[in-house]
Amino acid sequence: MQRVVKRSFSLEAYTLEGGATIPVTLGYETYGTLNEQKNNVILVCHYFSANSHAAGKYSPDDSLPGWWDGLIGPGKAVDTDKYFVICTDNLCNVQAKNPLVITTGPKSINPETGRSYGMTFPAFTFRDMAGIQYELMKQLDIRHLVAVMGPSAGGMIALHWAVQYPTMMDHVIGVNTAAQNPIMTSFNVLQHAMRTIKLDSNWNNGEYSEQQEPLEGLHLAIQMMNINAFTASYQESAYPRDSKEAAPYACIETMTSYECALYDKIAINIPLIDANHWLYTARATMMQDVSRGFDSLEEALSRIQARVLMIPCEQDLLQPPEYSQKVVDILKKQGKEADLHMIRSDKGHMAGVLEPHLFENEVKAWLKAGVQIGSN
């Protein structure tokens, strides 16, 4: 794939679902070539802790490509020889300190005060993200999409696209995702993580300085997400116990080797992540509900005209497969074209990002069906 270039777009004013109006600037990347008819476009939405770098490399020297590079590229399931792929950064992107991420959120400067928003930044939802991406498509004069797709939070955004802009796309593909975030996940990961950040003595109601950030609270919040994103069997193999070590048995303050291994792994990404941005994104995930504003989930999903493919993982603890099955069952009952492809992996939720080979054939076939590209 050609060298990837980061771009940005801005909206002078966007009114969020909660009613507040703010200026927005977000980053985005593209892969492949936009055809003359502008009808070969696929929008990829990123997951909770990712960003718009979904595929390729900025430089040949980059150690790793984008997070869904196994799925996106020349000759791959999302074939950039055929499709023009767009991926944007989200509002409140957790990697707010990553120089390659362009996002608007608590760390941004409020033009009305000249200071960072902090906790005065308004709440956002994944419906808002779909709306902001829709405005980008209008800026690019793209009037129809082959597909909107994504894993986890990205799939949540894709489902909002399907409900809010039903004639805008041919396909929606959601991987390890849900139309409504499971209450268990809202409690066990998201609410607990938000409270952990707030309990850090350095959080200071979100008014912390770069010299005194709530890093320990943030570290634990990320660890909570990491642990639940994989299965128990994966954790046993990734962080094996050492039954011969003596120090943790002699001193309660001494961490085991597997505790140290996980702590150090989480610590690698901490320099890129902002605690308030993590908190806001956790809240947006918690509030995921495509039925808001409708009398029922059935009524919301009845608006969908796109073909919907849901890809859950049997071992997913964060977005259990019954939530994907529920979406498919409702759509089929309504006479719509929907299907479910179950994958199995001890990587659980993260299989949707780390193991695209488990569903690449299904994605390729789903995209191919019933789409005419390049014709007027």
Task: Kindly describe this structure.
- Belongs to the AB hydrolase superfamily. MetX family.
- This is Probable acyltransferase.
- One of its GO terms (cellular component) is cytoplasm.
- The structure is a single chain.
- This protein has an 8-stranded mixed sheet with strand order 1-2-6-3-9-10-11-12, sandwiched between helices. Strands 4-5 form a two-stranded parallel ribbon.
- The chain has 376 residues and is α/β, with parallel strands linked by helices.
- The longest helix has 17 residues, at 183-199.
- Helix 10 links the parallel strand 11 (307-311) and strand 12 (338-340).
- The protein has 2 domains: 7-181 and 290-368, Alpha/Beta hydrolase fold, catalytic domain (Rossmann fold, 3-Layer(aba) Sandwich), CATH 3.40.50; 185-283, Orthogonal Bundle (Rna Polymerase Sigma Factor, Chain: A), CATH 1.10.1740.110.
- Helices cover 33% and strands 16% of the residues.
Layout: helices, strands, pairs:
Elements: E1 7-15, E2 21-31, E3 41-44, E4 72-73, E5 78-79, E6 84-88, E7 109-110, E8 115-116, H1 126-139, E9 145-151, H2 153-164, E10 169-175, H3 183-199, H4 215-229, H5 232-238, H6 247-250, H7 257-269, H8 275-286, H9 297-301, E11 307-311, H10 321-333, E12 338-340, H11 351-354, H12 360-368
Parallel strand pairs: 3-6, 3-9, 4-5, 9-10, 10-11, 11-12
Antiparallel strand pairs: 1-2, 2-6, 7-8
Helix pairs in contact: 1-2, 3-4, 3-8, 4-7
